[in-house]
Structure of DUF3145 domain-containing protein:
Amino acid sequence: MSTRGVVFVHSSPTAVCPHVEWAISGVLGTRVTLQWTPQPAVPGQLRAECTWSGPPGSGGALAGALRAWPMLRFEVTEEPSLGVDGERFCHAPGLGLWSGRTSANGDIVVAEDQLRALLAGGSPGQIPGRINELLGSAWDAALEPFRLAGDGAPVTWLHQVG
Protein backbone atom coordinates (compact mmCIF):
# COMPACT_ATOMS: atom_id res chain seq x y z
CA MET A 1 0.00 0.00 0.00
CA SER A 2 1.27 3.46 -0.87
CA THR A 3 0.30 7.05 -0.28
CA ARG A 4 1.70 10.39 -1.31
CA GLY A 5 2.14 13.89 -0.04
CA VAL A 6 4.10 17.10 -0.26
CA VAL A 7 7.04 18.53 1.68
CA PHE A 8 7.08 22.32 1.78
CA VAL A 9 10.31 23.78 3.17
CA HIS A 10 9.14 27.36 3.55
CA SER A 11 12.44 28.75 4.79
CA SER A 12 15.90 27.35 5.38
CA PRO A 13 19.31 28.93 5.84
CA THR A 14 21.53 28.11 2.85
CA ALA A 15 23.93 26.05 4.98
CA VAL A 16 21.10 23.76 6.16
CA CYS A 17 19.72 22.99 2.66
CA PRO A 18 22.02 19.98 2.01
CA HIS A 19 21.02 18.56 5.42
CA VAL A 20 17.35 18.89 4.50
CA GLU A 21 17.97 16.95 1.29
CA TRP A 22 19.89 14.24 3.20
CA ALA A 23 17.09 13.95 5.78
CA ILE A 24 14.42 13.53 3.08
CA SER A 25 16.68 11.09 1.22
CA GLY A 26 17.13 9.03 4.36
CA VAL A 27 13.38 8.67 4.92
CA LEU A 28 12.49 7.96 1.29
CA GLY A 29 15.48 5.74 0.56
CA THR A 30 16.42 7.57 -2.62
CA ARG A 31 18.75 10.46 -3.45
CA VAL A 32 16.91 13.79 -3.25
CA THR A 33 18.00 17.02 -4.91
CA LEU A 34 15.57 19.89 -4.40
CA GLN A 35 15.15 23.03 -6.50
CA TRP A 36 15.90 25.80 -4.01
CA THR A 37 14.63 29.31 -4.70
CA PRO A 38 14.91 32.53 -2.67
CA GLN A 39 12.31 33.01 0.07
CA PRO A 40 11.16 36.63 -0.34
CA ALA A 41 9.57 36.66 3.13
CA VAL A 42 13.04 36.18 4.71
CA PRO A 43 15.87 37.60 2.60
CA GLY A 44 18.90 35.31 2.58
CA GLN A 45 16.87 32.13 3.14
CA LEU A 46 15.71 29.57 0.59
CA ARG A 47 12.55 27.55 -0.01
CA ALA A 48 11.75 24.30 -1.83
CA GLU A 49 8.94 21.83 -2.18
CA CYS A 50 8.62 18.30 -3.40
CA THR A 51 5.95 15.67 -3.77
CA TRP A 52 6.67 12.21 -2.44
CA SER A 53 5.17 8.74 -2.47
CA GLY A 54 5.73 5.93 -0.02
CA PRO A 55 4.03 3.78 2.61
CA PRO A 56 1.55 5.30 5.08
CA GLY A 57 3.41 6.98 7.93
CA SER A 58 6.10 8.46 5.67
CA GLY A 59 4.75 11.96 6.30
CA GLY A 60 5.36 11.61 10.03
CA ALA A 61 8.83 10.19 9.40
CA LEU A 62 9.66 13.13 7.12
CA ALA A 63 8.43 15.67 9.68
CA GLY A 64 10.37 13.91 12.41
CA ALA A 65 13.56 14.01 10.36
CA LEU A 66 13.16 17.72 9.49
CA ARG A 67 12.43 18.87 13.03
CA ALA A 68 16.11 18.25 13.84
CA TRP A 69 16.69 21.84 12.59
CA PRO A 70 14.56 24.13 14.78
CA MET A 71 15.18 27.14 12.51
CA LEU A 72 13.28 25.54 9.60
CA ARG A 73 9.75 26.48 8.65
CA PHE A 74 8.11 23.52 6.97
CA GLU A 75 4.94 21.58 6.31
CA VAL A 76 4.51 17.95 5.37
CA THR A 77 1.24 16.54 4.09
CA GLU A 78 0.22 12.93 3.70
CA GLU A 79 -2.92 12.05 1.76
CA PRO A 80 -5.45 9.61 3.21
CA SER A 81 -5.02 6.02 2.05
CA LEU A 82 -7.03 2.84 2.51
CA GLY A 83 -7.79 2.63 6.25
CA VAL A 84 -5.40 5.48 7.14
CA ASP A 85 -6.30 9.12 7.79
CA GLY A 86 -4.42 11.88 6.05
CA GLU A 87 -2.13 14.08 8.13
CA ARG A 88 -0.55 17.49 8.08
CA PHE A 89 2.56 18.44 10.03
CA CYS A 90 3.64 22.06 10.53
CA HIS A 91 6.82 23.40 12.09
CA ALA A 92 7.71 27.00 12.88
CA PRO A 93 10.54 28.38 15.01
CA GLY A 94 9.29 29.16 18.50
CA LEU A 95 6.19 27.00 18.06
CA GLY A 96 7.73 23.60 17.38
CA LEU A 97 5.91 20.79 15.61
CA TRP A 98 2.13 20.48 15.29
CA SER A 99 0.22 17.67 13.59
CA GLY A 100 -3.39 17.06 12.75
CA ARG A 101 -5.48 14.50 10.92
CA THR A 102 -6.97 15.61 7.62
CA SER A 103 -10.05 14.71 5.64
CA ALA A 104 -10.06 13.91 1.93
CA ASN A 105 -10.46 17.63 1.10
CA GLY A 106 -7.63 18.69 3.44
CA ASP A 107 -9.71 19.98 6.37
CA ILE A 108 -8.33 19.34 9.86
CA VAL A 109 -10.36 16.64 11.59
CA VAL A 110 -10.81 16.88 15.35
CA ALA A 111 -11.57 13.46 16.79
CA GLU A 112 -14.22 12.65 19.38
CA ASP A 113 -11.62 11.80 22.04
CA GLN A 114 -9.91 15.16 21.48
CA LEU A 115 -13.21 17.00 21.93
CA ARG A 116 -14.05 15.02 25.08
CA ALA A 117 -10.63 15.86 26.56
CA LEU A 118 -11.10 19.51 25.65
CA LEU A 119 -14.49 19.65 27.38
CA ALA A 120 -13.29 17.72 30.44
CA GLY A 121 -10.27 19.87 31.20
CA GLY A 122 -10.39 23.54 31.99
CA SER A 123 -12.94 26.28 32.11
CA PRO A 124 -15.41 27.19 29.37
CA GLY A 125 -13.40 30.36 28.74
CA GLN A 126 -10.41 28.26 27.68
CA ILE A 127 -12.33 26.30 25.03
CA PRO A 128 -11.82 28.72 22.10
CA GLY A 129 -8.05 28.79 22.67
CA ARG A 130 -7.87 25.03 22.98
CA ILE A 131 -9.87 24.59 19.77
CA ASN A 132 -7.39 26.90 18.02
CA GLU A 133 -4.56 24.69 19.30
CA LEU A 134 -6.26 21.55 17.93
CA LEU A 135 -6.69 23.27 14.56
CA GLY A 136 -3.08 24.49 14.43
CA SER A 137 -4.17 28.11 14.09
CA ALA A 138 -0.90 29.58 15.43
CA TRP A 139 1.09 27.52 12.91
CA ASP A 140 -1.17 28.60 10.06
CA ALA A 141 -0.73 32.25 11.05
CA ALA A 142 3.06 31.87 11.33
CA LEU A 143 3.43 30.02 8.00
CA GLU A 144 0.92 31.89 5.82
CA PRO A 145 3.34 34.66 4.70
CA PHE A 146 5.80 31.95 3.65
CA ARG A 147 3.15 29.96 1.78
CA LEU A 148 2.16 33.02 -0.23
CA ALA A 149 5.79 33.76 -1.09
CA GLY A 150 6.05 30.28 -2.65
CA ASP A 151 3.18 30.61 -5.14
CA GLY A 152 4.38 29.53 -8.57
CA ALA A 153 7.65 28.00 -7.28
CA PRO A 154 9.05 24.83 -8.90
CA VAL A 155 8.11 21.43 -7.45
CA THR A 156 10.35 18.32 -7.36
CA TRP A 157 8.67 14.90 -7.73
CA LEU A 158 10.03 12.06 -5.58
CA HIS A 159 9.20 8.38 -5.10
CA GLN A 160 10.26 6.20 -2.23
CA VAL A 161 12.35 3.21 -3.18
CA GLY A 162 10.56 0.14 -1.93
